[in-house]
Amino acid sequence: ISSLGSATVIQLASFESPQEKRADILIPISTFLERSGSFTNFEGTTNCFEKVFEKPELVQHAGELFGRLA
Predict the structure, then answer these.
(1) Which helix (H) or strand (E) is 37 found in, with range?
(2) What is the pTM of this model?
């Protein structure tokens, strides 16, 4: 990831990485361990999961963040 001319680089990340130092804006997002939900596998079976940890206060759930941006 790098800035291209006047472009702004925005990075969503759950963990620290070398690339975040190049981002103009870093938005921390939660991991699957910090949210409840469900997924459907390739056979069409839906499985539910519960959060294991509370997310830190300033961390966003990616789905909620994208919903607010839309």
Answers:
(1) strand 37-40
(2) 0.63
